[in-house]
Amino acid sequence: MSDPRKSGPPRLVCIDKPVDMTSFGVVRRVRQITGYRRVGHGGTLDPFATGVLVLGLGPATRLMRFLAEGGKAYEAEIAFGSETDSEDRTGEVIRECGHIPSAKEIRSALPEFVGKIDQVPPRLSAIHVDGERSYRRARRGEVVELPARQVEVHSLELLSCEGPAARLRIECGGGTYIRSLARDLGRSLDGAAHLVALRRTRVGPFTADDALGLDDFARQWEGGARGFDPAFMVGDWPRLELDAERAAVVRNGGQPQPEWWAESGWAEVPENVALLDPDGRLLAIAGARSPDALKLSLVLPEDG
User: Fold this and answer.
1) CATH topology of domain 4-70+205-231
2) Is the Cβ–Cβ distance between 165 and 59 less than 8 Å?
3) Which one of 56, 127, 173, 280 counts the least CB within 10 Å of its CB?
4) What CATH class does 238-299 carry?
């Protein structure tokens, strides 16, 4: 008999990460609760941050690289007047500035950071530099110069502004550092700023309403609840609903054929397409190989 800890069906769970716990700490706890050995998350949260952390169980770990396709949302609190080496409240102050911007000044600066922007990641980040994490080099006192990379911010909204503290709502694509956004916002207003609180409220289709605290998750899992079927993650993606014959082709590694989407109405093949089996379960994800051809990116096992 197969070991369910190795061969459990692909499932997704949504955890409300508590403050001062690492994302890997959540992964470790979910492994203990579920018995799955393979557990992966869809994007880390810093220990001081809270909110939506989506995890894939078993074969669903392979879906995590697609999770950010639907974007992310955050609520962030920024403190103006000082900048830290980590760009958040956990670091040492490296620069101070007496200018505290008004709500009007902050609102006027926000459009500069909406759209596709170049962003230099924090030196104290997990980005690899010559085979080693940037934060490890920086903490040894080495000079770390990270190149700017393009990220996309969909929207920025000022929620409140009291004294040196401002709260923002942020919708963005994957790879965006909210810490760096706080840093750059402060500098753009001829001042200094750092991130003091962060809550992620959405990743793809998963929202804070879907997220469970670890204790609640443990109770529900013990009671038989098994999280989300992978099809939930691709709910609003372009899709092909396959009959049994075509599903068998894909399950055996065969590529999707042009006639399968002939009636879809697509002007060209979308970047990512969800392939569903006759029971509506996510069978595979295919990516655009050309404007008129799909190639399988991954296939989920029928029985895990």
Assistant:
1) Pseudouridine synthase (3.30.2350)
2) no
3) 280
4) mainly beta
Give SS3 for 133.
strand
4-70+205-231 and 72-196: same fold?
yes
Do 204 and 233 contact (CB within 8 A), yes or no? yes
State residue 304's pLDDT score: 43
Residue 224's Cβ-count burial label (10 Å; 0-12, 13-18, 19+) is exposed
What per-residue confidence (pLDDT) applies to 262? 81
Which residue blocks in 72-168 are alpha helix, DSSP H? 103-109, 134-139
Residue ranges of domains in the chain: 4-70+205-231, 72-196, 238-299
- Identify whether 209 is a catalytic site residue: no
Token pair in block for residue 265:
């109405």
Q: Which residue has the tokens 């000082």?
A: 82
Q: What is the CATH number of domain 72-196?
A: 3.30.2350.10
pLDDT under 70: residue ranges of the chain: 1-8, 124-144, 303-304
